[in-house]
Amino acid sequence: MENHELKTYFFEACSFLHIDVKETNPELYQLIFPKKLHHVFKEEQLNVTFKKEYQHLASFITTESYVLQKIAHLVTQQTKGMSHAFLSFSLDALKQEAKQKFSPDCTIMFQQEKKTTHIYLVLWCKYTLKGFKVEESLKAFKYNLSTREISPLPFEVHELFLKLTEAKSSIPKIENIEEITETMLQKANKEGSLFVKEKTKEVEKELEKEIKRIHDYYDLLQLEDAFAETASTVETREEREESLKSERYLLIEQQKIKYTFHEEDLTIEPVELLWLTEEIETCEMIVSNSFGTQHFSLSGEMENPFVCALTKRTEGPFTLLSDGRILLQEKARVCTECLHTFDHTQMKLCAVCDTSICHSCAKRSSLSQAALCSKHVTSCQGCRQQVATNEIQECGSCRDPYCRSCLSGELCELCFDLY
Amino acid sequence: MKKQPLSHLYLRLKSQEILLQKGYDRLLCLQDISIEPKPWQIETALKALGDMQGSALLADEVGLGKTVEAGLIMKELIHRGLIRSILVLVPSPLIEQWKAEMEEKFSLSFTDMRQKGWEKQELLITSLQYPIRSKERKEKLLTKTFDLVIVDEAHALKNHQTSLYKFVYQLKRKNTILLSATPLQNDMREIYNLINIMKPGYLKSRRIFRKEYMIDRFTPKNVKRLKDLLNDVMIRHRRANTLTELPKRSLINSEINMDVLEKTFYNHVTEFCKKIHVDYDKKTMSIMTLILLLKENTSSPQAVISTLENSILPKLSKDDQKECKKLITLGKQVTVTSKMKKMKEIVSSSDEQYIIYSEFQHSIEHLRSYLEKNGFSVVTFSGALNSKQKEAVIQTFKEGNAKILLSTEAGGQGINLQFCRNLIHFDLPWNPMRIEQRIGRVHRFGQTKEVQIYTIPTSGTIDEYLLYILTSKINLFEMIVGELDTVMSYMKEGNETLETTIGKILLDSKDSKEIEQKMKKIGEDLVKARNEFVETETQSSKLLNHIGVETHGES
């Protein structure tokens, strides 16, 4: 959490808990606790600072600091209710964006505009996985009250709340809320095994490293034993080998126990609920230019729907290619032969005149394999193959065009024979 | 369900995010412990748990609180629900102190393996030697897998050929914490052995370690590489870098002579104990009861009378009962002892506050009434009080509403009295660790003035011998906090405590000459241990500084 975010959170949390905050100087604040919190903080007042340089004067507040942790804990302990939020996925911004991002040669039209409303119950769950360390994560799931589908909510808390607005209407009574949350918890549990796998993978490297250390060590000991100058008796050697083997096995087993996460070590705890009304606007967007017309389905929840098909860049300006794809204008080329638009990777340059030609229109010299436009391709009188106009020479006698491989001297084969 | 504003939900979710645990970015146990750890102690615990993943050699210099660091690691792992079983191996003189410290500071109750039913307990403490003295015990421990094994004064593991080393190596465990201010003395291989017990093969084989990192026993090579390797498994802080030097502490000895009546009573009690020791079998009269009586005899007749009446008299023959009753009558005549008078003299000498320690409740009660009669304001602290009452007593004393705090051993542990600088040992525990614990209540972080420690030894008694050893031989009263622990760990581990040894000396010796000789031997052992420690610490620091083992957390 950035320092300014931390500060904002801290002051909001204090206000929520009725803790008075007085600024005593620009970097120092005095917290005055309400009576009911005196026993928690064991004092009535406390000086705090967000700057390390002032920590000799006041408690230094960081995400890990005792005071902030205590405050966060107190906030979560307050009586819970349910919030009702409205999440609108309007098309306005996308429409505006489309108009700005397409080049002036494109005409944009919107058709079949409609609004769909979904009601969701959102549940946040805290995942706690205990192995050799504790890994915790907050995950949210939304339950569609019409379709009964459950899907993960793809937003971080901060990101989501930037989009939410307070819904004025009250929350209708939900008869089967317990049943729904139970179903959602089941879904959360299913996702739990993925969480365990993900965390196990993260510590696998550690385990491998520890096992390798043990193997290397015992391999070395065995090797050193084998070359030991003072040879022990056969029996003691055998005994030693046996004890090394068992030590090695036991040490590896201990490491495996230490570095393995088990599904039974995972606990999932529901922490917050939200009643969410989601309104999504959708429409058909028609983009047309002199090279063609293309229909796109737009939805207000789409993020960056306009992406260059070639570079994946999103900032535009875009144009429409003849094949219906959206492309950054700077990457689009017109074929001088067929007059269709293509992305630049689909184009060739004529080896003679440098004009752009598409793959389909480009001809190829059988001599140099170079791409050629129709103006600069010709055929050899001798081999009858296509070659570039600048690869042709005339026979000194008959003046017929020949490629370099067919005209070795000044005369073509026919004239040479006649001569 | 009640509707709540969206801003509240946001706040709650942000709070949930703040509370999420991701690795070891902070210690969560701090709210559950009754001490405020020093910055380097927190840093050590976080490093040992995080980067070092639960196995580390904590090699801070003496006095920086390695035990607290180990306690923090244990408590944090328990708080997070990551471990359940712990085995702590410590030199036998430190068991009691470790147990008390863990209980008071971290609310962790360890079971001494000498107690029955230890097999069923998860938090075990024992001496380094105790498990290997019995094949059965050893086997039982080797079948268990411990989540954490802690070895205090781990230099005891410097030799890999000892049965102790082999035993610890074989212990099945997930994490290992070793504590030693002197992880190597005069042979580089000692540190190899310590680290190899914690992480076998981390420094390759002994042969390769010798080849790669040693010129000879005292001289390291490839120092940079060795330093990097050690820094990943070892944490060392130095006093000079932690600004932990405390004000001086000084001893004021006020020797007294008993008057005729006191002396008669004292001698009669000693002789009576000797007689009982010879005449009765151990089942009828335990040696511990007699030692208690001898200890009380150095405190007050009131303490002696109580034990005579309650624990001795009912077990005696008719003739001996007569003798005992006579003794009780004699004791009752001694109402104000010379020691009490001296104590009154000391507390009257200034306007400052005083803490007076006695091991015995009856002495405390008698002192209270004597001091109050003489116009002093007194509060009493003992194990019999509940936590609220204890808090109230300390608060009264802290606020200056009482000049004197009378405290039993229960007050010697777990409370902070650094606002006061005068401490009177009304009687002297026979266990130097207890003396150190008493001093530790006032001579600790936060103390700003020179600490004055008063003792009132009685001429011709065991007090005199004991004090001579503790002052002249090991200079106990001027030691650095925590130094005594390490010195004691260098003492040859015997089967009995120092207290019992002293008690037996008193009971078994023919005359004062014999007592003196035997006490002298104890003194010599302590001197030997201290010298060995001083030499080791110097060597260890020299070598570690040469390698450049990082000093963490300079504050």
Describe the secondary structure blueprint for this structure.
The complex is a heterodimer of chains A (419) and B (555).
Chain A: H1 3-16, E1 20-25, E2 28-32, H2 38-41, E3 45-49, E4 59-60, H3 66-77, E5 83-89, H4 92-101, E6 107-130, E7 134-144, E8 150-152, H5 157-163, E9 164-166, H6 177-226, H7 234-258, E10 266-289, E11 292-299, E12 318-320, E13 326-328, E14 332-334, E15 341-343, E16 347-349, E17 356-358, E18 363-364, E19 371-372, E20 377-379, E21 386-388, E22 392-394, E23 401-403, H8 413-418
Parallel strand pairs in A: 3-4, 5-10
Antiparallel strand pairs in A: 1-2, 2-3, 5-9, 6-7, 6-10, 7-8, 10-11, 12-13, 14-15, 16-17, 18-19, 20-21, 22-23
Chain B: H1 6-19, H2 39-49, E1 56-58, H3 66-79, E2 86-90, H4 95-106, E3 111-112, E4 123-127, H5 130-133, H6 135-143, E5 145-151, H7 163-170, E6 172-179, H8 188-198, H9 206-213, H10 223-231, E7 234-235, H11 239-242, E8 249-253, H12 260-279, H13 287-297, H14 301-312, H15 318-333, H16 338-348, E9 354-357, H17 361-373, E10 378-381, H18 387-398, E11 404-407, E12 422-425, H19 432-442, E13 451-455, H20 462-473, H21 483-489, H22 498-508, H23 512-547
Parallel strand pairs in B: 1-6, 1-7, 2-4, 2-5, 3-4, 5-6, 8-13, 9-11, 9-12, 10-11, 12-13
Helix content of chain A: 25-40%
Report the β-strand fraction of chain A as a percent range: 25-35%
- How many β-strand stretches of chain B? 13
Q: Uncertain spans of chain A, ≥5 residues at pLDDT below 50?
A: none
Which structural class do you get from the secondary structure elements of chain B? Answer: alpha/beta
Task: Give the CA-CA distance, first to last residue of chain B.
Answer: 52 Å
Task: Give the proportion of residues in helices of chain B.
Answer: 40-55%
The biggest beta sheet of chain B reads: 7 strands, parallel
**Strand tally of chain A:** 23
Tell me the number of helical segments of chain B per DSSP (H or I, 4 or more residues long): 23
How far apart lie the N and C ends of chain A?
A: 92 Å
Quaternary structure annotation: heterodimer
Please give the radius of gyration of chain B in angstroms: 26 Å
Rg of chain A, nearest Å: 37 Å
Number of helices of chain A: 8
Please give the largest β-sheet of chain A.
7 strands, mixed
* Largest interface, chains and sizes: A-B, 65 and 49 residues
